[in-house]
Design brief:
The complex is a heterodimer of chains A (442) and B (470).
Chain A lengths: L8 E16 L2 E19 L2 E7 L4 H20 L23 H4 L3 H17 L3 E17 L2 E17 L5 E8 L7 H12 L11 E7 L1 H14 L3 H5 L20 E3 L21 E5 L2 E2 L6 H7 L22 E3 L7 H5 L4 E15 L4 E14 L2 E5 L3 E6 H6 L1 E4 L4 E3 L13 E3 L2 E11 L2
Parallel strand pairs in A: 7-12
Antiparallel strand pairs in A: 1-2, 1-4, 2-3, 4-5, 5-6, 7-19, 8-9, 8-11, 9-10, 12-13, 13-14, 13-15, 15-19, 16-19, 17-18
Chain B lengths: L1 H4 L4 E17 L2 E19 L2 E8 L3 H17 L15 E5 L11 H15 L5 E19 L4 E19 L2 E7 L6 E3 L3 H6 L2 H17 L6 E7 L1 H13 L4 H4 L29 E4 L20 E6 L2 E2 L6 H6 L9 E2 L8 E2 L3 E4 L7 H6 L3 E5 L2 E6 L5 E6 L2 E5 L2 E6 L3 E5 H6 L1 E4 L6 E10 L4 E9 L2 E8 L3
The chains are: A alpha+beta (442), B alpha+beta (470).
Amino acid sequence: MAAAPEGEALAHVTHERSLLLRFAGNRPTQATAIDDVTVELAVLVDGHLGRAATNETDAQSLSACADRALLAAEAAAATAAPTTHPGFPPGPPPRPHRGHDPDTAALDPARGGAALATAFAAAERHKLEAHGVWTVAEEERAVATSAGGALDRTTDALMKVICIGPGGRSGYASRVGVAASAIEPEPLTERAAAKALAPGTPAELPPGEYPVVMESRAVGSLLELLGSTALNGLAYAEGRGALAGRLGERVAAPAINLSDSPQHHATLPRAFDAEGTPKQPMPLIQDGVAQAVVHDLRSGALAGAASTGHALAPGGIPEGPQPYNLVLTGGGARDVEELCAPIERGVYVTRFWYENVVRPKETLVTAVTRDGTFLIEDGRVTQPLRDLRLTDSVLRILSGVQDLGAGQELASQAEFYGRRFAHGVVCPALRAGAVRFTDTTG
Amino acid sequence: MDAAGKRAEYADARFVRTQSELLSTRNGAVDQADSQDSEGIGVRVRVGGSWGFAAVRGTDKRGAEAALERALAVAAAQPPSRGAALAEEPPAVGSYESPAERDPFEVPLEDKLAVLWAADALLRTEPEVAVTHARFQAVRVHKLFASTDGALCEQVLTECGGGLAAVAVDGEESQIRSFPTSHGGHMEQTGYERFLLLDLAGEAPRVSAEAAALVRAPACPSETTTLILAGEQLGSQLHESVGHAVELDRVLGREASYAGTSFVPSDGIGKLRFGSEHVNVTADATHPGGLGSYRWDDEGVEGRSMPIVRDGVLAGFLSSRETAAEIGLDRSGGCMRADGFARQPIVRMTNVSLEPGDAGTLADLVADTERGLLIDTNRSWSIDDRRLHFQFEGEAGWEIHNGEVGRLVRNPSYAGVTPRFWAGCDAVCSASEWQLSALLDCGKGEPGQTTHVSHGSAPARFRDVEVGVA
């Protein structure tokens, strides 16, 4: 780094230490402990980017990695194609946060084993099978340029439990946060069990539009899809995003206030992005009006804007930047019962599965409900429902939001592909007026 | 292995070195000039029926010993398990390297970028096209596997390929067209020669023109009709509704917390009707060029070809040593694959392919179809957690009228229920039309693992399918 011209090289280092225990049918099935590092080096030659990554940290390996990045940048520069990359400018120092818990960083397998045993015992009391995951991790991220560097240290902990009964009915509950001590396996399992044991035979609703109450886990997954499509600065800059030409317009109900808030007390905080740009709170939709999209250095340059600290790799990724600390402000409803109260006939959704974007410019997505779908009749949940396929526009659903719960929860997909990057959406449950379901699936 | 054998019922260790290179252009500029290199050791142990797995980077003995200690500690910390004994398997011994005429990592970067740049320029010929991509990718995985059962084997697998995409935007409409497949392009287990054979520059003008035509095309009508699937879209259909449904870990409920279970019962072999008599599906880990090909899987079981569906009836599962033993199979299907050294192997697809039929060429099949819809490239996919109810949308659809390909339609979606959909298969094209398509983003497992697989198929026809559903 010291040898590189200012703004023309950047190192991004991630050190993951993690432990993940899986279980199925009231027994442990897989357990994975990882200790690994990724060093990403980004080099600019005449504005052209070359990158190389390695997990070896001896001097020879790092030197070879730097040579590969430089060679790639020189090859890119040799094309003499136009480039708009602004370089890696030094930024202000990142703000500290409270996203690290030393107790969680111990990655104690005994604590995980005890959590599993508690979940199994609770499920067996109800003659149910517990399936799920208990996981903890410590992630250290550092960025360095010739102008200096910064270090961010975080922890995350998650447990999810799916209880399944003999008839195949299932219920889901999860808890995610910075500290493993906040995870309480017994109440979590009881919540999941209550859904699996809800009385009644699953009813079937024909495809159509219904009012819906969604728990925070379901809301969070739809907002993540909104983040990858409409709030993505590269899609916006290229004219293929749903908010292209629509900033300043009403795109959702007035009750919708969505921000990216990396220091919110319930989120998994981060100090800076993969390009070292410090993270700051930013409003994205205020009172239903679109305010901004998120940028990394590249998309910002294309859009004539500054990076907002949302790069997922030095130099960005082809899919573009995304917000990973989304926070949806809560509303006035005391709980989900109060959200259900005005509904004559509708659907209660615990979570969605296999969410996928169908047409990004419309924010049209599809997903199926799973692990706790119920019929709402005359203002209350009355019986289980066969699962349903949602095919609708996220912005259309948000435009139909009538009320939101007062409480917020961190909802996380916790999928951990590649190098661990724990994130989630802080959001309440909500009620939407008319959501489009296109099939019965359960 | 000596140290592990004294302290565990079973243990294995994998050294994996992964090398990859990804080059891409976007709107005429180099978008990605990336290389990645990683190596490390993953140690898996079984103690008291519980598995423990630990991964450390590097290759030194101290790190491997630390991984063993961590794996043992993790296994011991869990509640006792009642895991089945592992199916017997002769120890894997030997070495293997997948064939590659020209090493893709030895080709100068400038040469590869020149191919992409030329193709990208030919994509930017239509005014509606706002974003263009051309992509090259190569991956090499070097593995050493040893187990307390006496296995010691080494293999080197090289993959190479690429692709194109053009995104057209016109007001509120945005459409994408890709070649030869979407979601990252086409790869095979081969050398640089396969990338050149794609002839990206030759295909670019057509891809660009089709993307532009799509933003002006009428929307796919909603109706129940005959559907002809080809290429990547038929591969995706096989992948989601057949391949995942016959993974034995899902069938046994092991993936209920994430990927889901399966509608297929564990005692369904020889009994469960999966589709019509035209449906014959094979899982083949030996097919040359397939991304699901290998000499040994990641627990040392020799890869082989196995029937999955024969004459429409379930004939087999994708399995591991543990899951095979659990339902009384003599041997594992050899389907355990891991995403690098830092993930433990899980049941995965090999090359799950639809066997060719006797319906001739795609042109013959279209000529034999009075009315319907043809889809060949995937844009969106979703299926429920039992692999029953699915919904797909292709990039482009072509109406079929009176045995001829008609007008182009945008947003060609369809939905169905797995056994009912495959029961409606009344024709599969002949062997001359059979080809592999690649799927580069198959996700499964916790922590998540991504793998590359291939699916072979010839175009097939399905009756009474709901289209225009999204």
